[in-house]
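Checklist before submission:
- one chain only
- standard amino acids only
- sequence pasted in full

Submission:
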Amino acid sequence: AVAGADLVQENGPERIEFKQQLWARIETSVPKHALLLSSSSARPATEQAKDMRDPSRMLVGHPFNPPHLIPLVEVVPGEKTGEEAVTDAAAFYTALGKVARIVRKEISGFVVNRLQRAIFREACNLVIKGVVKADELDDIVTNSVGIRWAADGPFRSFYLGGGAGGFEHFFQQFGASLNAAWKNMDPVNLGPEEQKKIIE
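Returned file contents:
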């Protein structure tokens, strides 16, 4: 199936042994110039390519569901991925009309899933503590930061919040309180009782 392919986009199960064996098999049949991309949302390319002889053309190209609507693709090279493969992957996704952004260091969850985890952690915390109901929280997000971040993202938004002084002024105003808030964030336990509260 891959013998004449210029590009392979792998969408297999998130089991590392499966991916390692699959890439080792694909490598024996695919042309040497082919770009090898994994849709993995959790398994870094370095780990996936462990059994490959030449992992220089293998990297993660992580889209988001539903991929026909969400433009972003995280392009995440492994330790042995060549620079040309990174450039080629970004160009490929861009040619499809996607927004390809390179994640410059392999890290668990890449970028978007880490952000989602942090936001969802606090969303669960607020519902568990009875501060707000789940549907109310969704309305709060979609009618505030959801709209703001769709236009600007957190860095640009807060830069603008600093006025003419940008981040320098923003950090003078809010840096200390942000540090204090981050150090004192509530622990969140998502046990059976807490899950039941959210489910209900």
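Reviewer check: The CA atoms of residues 128 and 197 lie 7 Å apart.
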